[in-house]
TrEMBL record:
The lineage of its organism: Eukaryota, Sar, Stramenopiles, Ochrophyta, Bacillariophyta. PANTHER family: CYSTATHIONINE BETA-SYNTHASE. This is Tryptophan synthase beta chain-like PALP domain-containing protein. Residues 27-337 form the Tryptophan synthase beta chain-like PALP domain. SUPFAM superfamilies: Tryptophan synthase beta subunit-like PLP-dependent enzymes. It comes from Corethron hystrix. InterPro entries: Cys_Synth/Cystath_Beta-Synth, TrpB-like_PALP, TrpB-like_PALP_sf. Transmembrane segments: none annotated. Pfam families: PALP.
Amino acid sequence: ICQKMNASLTSEEIVQDRNASVLPSVLDAIGNTPLVALDRLTAKAGLKGRILAKLENLNPGLSKKDRVALQMIRDAERKGNLRPGQCVVELTSGNTGTGLAIVCGVTGHPCVLVMSRGNSMERVHMMRGLGAEVVLVDQAPGSVKGRVSGADLDLVFDSVGKIVAERGAFRADQFELGSNFDAHYLHTGPEMWRQSGGTIEAFADFVGTGGTFSGISKFLKEVNPDIHTYIVEPTGCPVLARAAAPTCQELFWGSDPSHRIQGGGYSIEKLKMLSEHTYYTDGFMQVSDERAIECTRLLAKEEGIFGGFSSGANLSAALELLGGEHSGKTIAICICDTGLKYISTDLWQTDETC
């Protein structure tokens, strides 16, 4: 563990060293993001304890998925699974795709990204601007624009398989490749622990592929088994909570499984990697679209941090923990991506006019 944490250097020394010289490429700017205390927000809420937020929105592609993209491509090249100049294909809700567009552009791999039309279009423009080819998949019949359903995601998975076969491409499978887990177990988790001075007592994370939650949770529980970790899911679509308590499905499964919190709510069959690490979970929490939006806006107004839907979901979970059994404790969360990717959605669209 000490080797993973690079204990001979403090986080400040690592960042200062990185910023003191010219970096070889933008890939060297991925990671070592700041950890910020949300003390103004907790004080206004009248809560005891602290929330520490890892600002993953400050990565070059404006999300935590830059780490995963870099780890997947580097690992695949090193193992010989990805040939020089070979095309890379993956499905995305936008963040992994943006990270892959950046990494593939720098490393010389053509990149094809497949996304549901239910996701925000800002991400499409960004990925295309970074040189990737973006394939948009129509939503399933009955799906609502801006709300991605499991049926929508199944259509995207099907399209990815066809494109990989047609182009002889490498599938940068964030659901299967251990690189997703490793990016956070080897890097994000150790960074958080080091930056916090070893004060983290709980961790909550909105689950998409499960790489962030499982990687960080495993690391934190290795350095301190008393740390509690919680999976956060959309209300109405808590696939992991439902799988963990199959006899109580009515408690966890709403009539409408679609939701606005982009990047989560995948079917349990897709979460093979996370299912291997569920023993790191101390509990499940659900957050509604409305509460995620409320907390994302609160984060921006009170702390000046402009995050996306899942960042608000994480904040909601942390506030709930501080208001309950973890009162007075230190809770860690991730600011998963930037709110700039959701300007066209109801996250930031209000009735106010200019």
